[in-house]
Amino acid sequence: MKNLILEGFMGCGKSRIARALGDDTGMEVIDTDALIEKEQKKQISDIFAAEGEEAFRNMETALLRDLLKDTKNCIISLGGGMPVREENRRILKELGTVVYLKADRDTLVGRLERGVEKRPMLSGHDLEKRVEELLAARKDFYDDAADVIIDIGEDDPDTISLRIRKELGL
Ligand code: S3P
Fold first, then answer.
1. Please, what are the domains in the chain?
2. Model-level pTM?
3. From the CB of residue 39, how many other CB atoms can be counted at a distance below 10 Å?
């Protein structure tokens, strides 16, 4: 069985939906942000502060290359910026089936109002403007990387897990 990969903007619920999918399928769950934090022994906001965004993006690409070597049958929850790099999108196509958890700007802004300080791509910006700007810049990359698009709407993680499993025949 191929890996099942979740992509989408910050706040769309990737980690929670990955956990629901893990519970429902018994598949192992991998979270790229959590793996990078474990490896670096630092929080993502501290990595950005100390080394900058480019260094973090390099860590993401290195992690994807590693996952491609030996990871199978897993649910992989990606950091929201992962599909921006062309190399990452190429690796993702080989690594598994990519599900894009799509949400509109207002839904995302509502969900992101708490926890901005943990997200260096958002902190220090006007939230609405920043989400709009980043969504516009990333939209084509998310679409391009996706095998399946799930509009999350108002659904909770368990319902979305069910919808994904139906769509993929799991
Ligand atoms: C980022 C999203 C974050 C994390 C980092 C950068 C982004 O992950 O990887 O702060 O550029 O969208 P989440 O999508 O899990 O918040």
1. 3-168 (3.40.50.300)
2. 0.97
3. 12
| Residue to mutate, 16, 33, 45, ligand 1, most ligand atoms under 8 Å from C-beta | 33
Supply 166's token pair: 């139906």
**pLDDT for residue 28 is more than 70:** yes
**At residue 48, does pLDDT exceed 70?**
yes
Q: Which of 12, 85, 121, 142 to mutate to test the pocket of ligand 1 (most atoms within 8 A of CB)?
A: 121
Residue 107 three-state SS? helix
Distance 159 CA to ligand 1 centre (A): 23
Q: In what order do the strands lie in the sheet with 3-7?
A: 28-31, 74-77, 3-7, 96-102, 148-151
> Is 80 touching ligand 1 by the criterion CB < 6 Å?
yes
CB distance 91 to 68 below 8 Å: yes
Indicate the SS3 state at residue 73: coil
The CA distance from 131 to 135, in Å, is 6
Residue with tokens 């769950």: 29
